[in-house]
Amino acid sequence: MVYIAPSLLAADFSRLAEEVGRIERADMLHVDVMDGHFVPNLSIGPAVVEALRKKTKLPFDVHLMMEEPLAYIGVFRQAGADIITFHIECQDQPQAVIAAIKASGARAGVAISPKTPAEAIGPWGEDLSQITVMTVEPGFGGQSMMLDMLPKVYKLRARFPQALVEVDGGVNLETAPLCKAAGANILVAGTSVFRAQDPYLEMRCLAM
């Protein structure tokens, strides 16, 4: 089964609650949090996550694009995060971050940027619920997928069968079949879903 996670980064930020309502039949909501250091952009904080938590029952997949995610796990969990994903390239020790996420009651995920090999996850992968393969450079929406990242999906599915493998970046009706063929369990789709006239139909087509 393939899950679809619309990326809030592609939504109209002037009417976020309405936008989330449009994708209520998604499997989860992907929320990118950027600190302006790990990636050059800034995005939403825990107050927005908390406000949206009151508007939907969708699971929140909170993706921390931060240099020091350890300091923010508690506040995002309290705001409503169900899954907390951090980057293996961050400055904090991965084992400590995973332990803190699990202790908070959230499911733990790790993301790897395009330049990072799948092997970088190492032994920590066995403690993860989810692994995110970035198929664009993190920090900006609307980019084209780097198709040469897809072999990582296959490797990670084989190495860590207990974890769901998510593809994040450039997912659309053309690239989704390639992601699924590589073994992806979750597809993060931003522009493709939020710009669609019928988001539900778009999500169904992506998952087929």
What does this structure look like?
Strands 1-8-7-6-5-4-3-2 form an eight-stranded parallel beta sheet. It has eight helices and eight strands. It has a single domain, classed as TIM Barrel (Alpha-Beta Barrel). The model has no long low-confidence stretch (mean pLDDT 95). The protein starts with a strand and ends with a helix. The protein is an alpha/beta fold. Helices cover 30% and strands 20% of the residues. Helix 2 (46-53) runs parallel beside helix 3 (73-79).
Q: What is the CATH superfamily classification?
A: Aldolase class I
Provide the succession of SSEs: EHEHEHEHEEHEHEHH
The overall strand count is: 8
Report the structural category. alpha/beta
Compute the separation of the termini in Å. Answer: 9 Å
Helix content: 25-40%
Main sheet: strands, sense, barrel: 8 strands, parallel
> Reading side by side through the largest sheet, how are the strands ordered?
1-8-7-6-5-4-3-2
Strand content: 15-25%
- Give the radius of gyration: 15 Å
Report the principal-axis shape: globular
- Which architecture would the CATH scheme give at its second level? Alpha-Beta Barrel
Counted up, domains total 1
By CATH reckoning, the class would read Alpha Beta
| Average pLDDT number | 95
**What oligomeric state do these chains adopt?**
single chain
Count of helical stretches: 8
SSE layout and pairing:
Elements: E1 3-6, H1 16-22, E2 29-34, H2 46-53, E3 60-65, H3 73-79, E4 83-87, H4 94-104, E5 107-112, E6 130-134, H5 150-159, E7 164-168, H6 176-182, E8 186-189, H7 191-194, H8 199-207
